[in-house]
Amino acid sequence: MQNIFVFDIETIPDVDSGRRLYALDGLDDADTGKAMLALRQQQTGNDFLPLHLHRICAISVVLRHADKVRVWTLGEADAPEAELVQRFYDGIDKFTPTLVSWNGGDNRDFKWNNYLSRYHERHTDLMDVLANYQPRASAKLDEIASMLGFPGKMGMSGAKVWDACQAGEIGRIRDYCETDVLNTYLVYLRFELIRGHLTAAAYQREFDLLRNSLQADDRAHIGEFLEHWSDDRSG
Q1: CATH numeric code, 4-10+60-228
Q2: pLDDT tens, 124-178?
Q3: CA separation (Å) from 92 to 10, 20, 100?
Q4: 119: buried, middle or exposed (CB in 10 Å: 19+, 13-18, 0-12)?
Q5: Which of 43, 44, 149, 189 could form an S-S bond across to 234 if both were Cys, CB 3.0 to 4.6 Å?
Q6: 70: which strand partners?
Q7: What is the DSSP letter of 158?
Q8: pTM over 0.85
Q9: Sequence spans of domains, the chain
Q10: Sheet-wide strand order for 68-73
Q11: Is residue 101 packed enough to be buried (19+ CB in 10 Å), middle (13-18) or exposed (0-12)?
Q12: Rounded distance, CA 156 to CA 173, Å?
């Protein structure tokens, strides 16, 4: 296979910007984040903040390169957002990969950008592609992964990331981000199979390569992912 760079990003409220925009001086980070989410809920009926009020706290990737596949999270646990973003783009510059994500290309203003155009495949946003770019047809990664026999969320979700961050559980967030990006990669492999880019034999080889790589990884969350990865429908 060509170089494949699957990524997943976890974010938290950008509380510094929230204080400036909403005159929340005097509140600590926890209360500022709660206020931002509550304001958004009042404005839109849900608490998903606009993109400019997110701060990246973790970027996890699966890299399929040469005869290897690897999953990891960029930077150290205490790395600032700027370093995580720089490492991400350094990887793109180094490998010139095909990018794969789930809901990773949702700024339509950039549709002509080399990596964000829907009219080529340098970046495949699986959520968009599988929904035929129709928002009403969009599905959740957890549901699609689970339908295909993959582990899915395993008890964690993006909605819990802010609380985990406030509890100092950045390691838990990074582990969750890695399992999400593994789910995305497995869905991508199935997508490549059903559209004829992988033969059944090649598809099984990719699964075996990933499984063998994960079995050599002694981290607890990777072991849990393997335990939840059923064989009956996933190849």
Answers
A1: 3.30.420
A2: 999 999 988 888 888 999 999 999 999 998 888 888 899 999 999 999 999 999 9
A3: 19, 33, 12
A4: exposed
A5: 149
A6: 63
A7: G
A8: yes
A9: 4-10+60-228
A10: 68-73, 54-65, 4-13, 98-101, 123-125
A11: buried
A12: 9
